Automatic annotation (TrEMBL):
Pfam family, one: IL8
Source species of the chain: Erinaceus europaeus
The protein's name: C-X-C motif chemokine
Alphabetical keyword list: Chemotaxis, Cytokine, Disulfide bond, Secreted, Signal
UniProt xrefs under InterPro entries: Chemokine_b/g/d (IPR039809), Chemokine_CXC (IPR001089), Chemokine_CXC_CS (IPR018048), Chemokine_IL8-like_dom (IPR001811), CXC_Chemokine_domain (IPR033899), Interleukin_8-like_sf (IPR036048)
UniProt-listed CDD domains: Chemokine_CXC (cd00273)
PANTHER family with a match to the protein in the record: C-X-C MOTIF CHEMOKINE 15, SMALL INDUCIBLE CYTOKINE A
Residue intervals of the Chemokine interleukin-8-like domain: 26-87
Protein origin, superkingdom: Eukaryota
Family: Belongs to the intercrine alpha (chemokine CxC) family.
Signal peptide: 1-24
Annotated localization: Secreted
Amino acid sequence: MATKSSLFLLAALVLGILADTSEGQELRCQCIHTHSDFISPKLIKNIQVVPEGPYCNRKEVIVRLKDETLICLDPDAEWVMNIIKKIADRYN
């Protein structure tokens, strides 16, 4: 029969697992400044599109360059929209 302390520890463990946010998930906007200058796709290693949500009221586009630099792009810049569209078309 489980004691009260072991039940408490089990409950704390379960709550800790459920409350654990995944790596990279923040409860606020990630981008303070955005850049609209063109960046060659050859320099881009990874692109992440974060939609509007309860913790950030704007769409964010974050790229990781091959030198591991993170840059927030202006999601309304025409060249950024074109890259996102090409990626989306590739998967549709």
